[in-house]
User: What shape does this take?
Amino acid sequence: MYGTFHHYLENQVKNAGPLDLVLMLYSRALSCLRISKKAIEEGAPGGGFIFGSSNAIQSSVPPENFLIMLETAKKYGKYKSEV
Assistant: This one.
């Protein structure tokens, strides 16, 4: 199954960008915004970028920081349509 999945995504996914959870854990709100925005700005050009926090959010990450990460993704994590 992995081989089929990998083959399907081989030319579509360029970068899956986990944010540094230690920074998310100990940073203030403005820093979380900057960290999230920088990850999108650096990873998104060219398409195929998956924005995320690895495979989970630790329960010790402040909810405010997690919500900032999500809002930043909503605001800055969209590709422009080429229609």
